Amino acid sequence: MKETVERSPGNGCIRHSPTQYRSSFTLLELLVVIAIIGILASMLLPSLSTAKETAKRASCANNLKQLSQGVLFYTDDNNDWFPSYDTFGAWPRLWYNFIDYEINKNLATYYSNSLSSAKPAVWECPSNPNHGWAWSDLSYGYNVNLGYFRSDGSVITQIVCSKKVTRPAELIMLGDGDGDKEYDSYINASYYVCGARHNLGAVIAFVDMHVSWMRQRDTFRPGVAWDGAHYNGGAWDSKSRYLWGAEGYYAK
């Protein structure tokens, strides 16, 4: 409430008359404002979520580019041969021991089952809530078809010479593991498969060093199906054989 001062035209007297003024929103107006804010938030939140995941995927791709560079350094130092996934010998024995040393030159992780002593950020996918630092839960996996040769002479897959790869832009080298904490550092076209944490797909590094996103389903070989615990089964065809270098395709 405020007073308005007025002068009477007849006798020049001054009189005071109260006038009303609004000091706040009505309930209806407040509800309208709240509704508009809610509508705007519902429109913006999906965009913000998408932008956040896009940034995480870009970070993941950058990690895999660096790890790919480490594999390249390794092949340069080893007469063009890819590393074995696991030599089952004395340390260093796992592929990530060799690649991390090529990148970070850290002897503590070179002679250990785990990278936890150093926790190098390049091995951690920002979209993987189950990331760890050892063979079971590392964010990134190695294409086992490039080599899994044990020191006792047993062969899971023959080690591939990089110079024999005739279609490097189509051959998977590294990629997101599936994040189930069971051999996440090992990827293949069935059972231990690529992840689906980036919009139902995985970030993949190919032998020619390029990195791209692939839908998880497109990394499977034909006939793979969920068995209640893993994506399992199926059989190789020409496309999946090229994609993974399977059945010793490049080791012949």
How does this structure look, described?
- The protein is α+β, with helices and mostly antiparallel strands and 252 residues long.
- It has one domain.
- The protein is 29% helix and 18% strand.
- The chain contains four helices and eleven strands; from the N terminus they run E-E-H-H-H-E-E-E-E-E-E-E-E-E-H.
- The strands form four sheets. It has a five-stranded mixed β-sheet with strand order 7-3-6-8-9, with helices on one face.
- The longest helix has 51 residues, at 27-77.
- The protein is elongated and about 80 Å long.
- The protein starts with a strand and ends in an 8-residue tail after the last helix.
- The mean pLDDT is 88.
Topology:
Blueprint (H helix, E strand, L loop, with lengths): L1 E6 L6 E6 L7 H51 L17 H10 L2 H4 L29 E4 L4 E2 L5 E3 L14 E5 L9 E2 L13 E6 L4 E5 L8 E3 L4 E3 L4 H7 L8
Parallel strand pairs: 3-7
Antiparallel strand pairs: 1-2, 3-6, 4-5, 6-8, 8-9, 10-11
Keyword list:
11 strands, elongated, alpha+beta
Number of helices: 4
Distance between the termini: 94 Å
Mean pLDDT: 88
Q: Note the run of SSEs as H and E.
A: EEHHHEEEEEEEEEH
The amount of helix comes to 25-40%
Runs in which pLDDT lies below 50 for 5 or more consecutive residues are none
Strand tally is 11
Nearest-angstrom radius of gyration?
31 Å
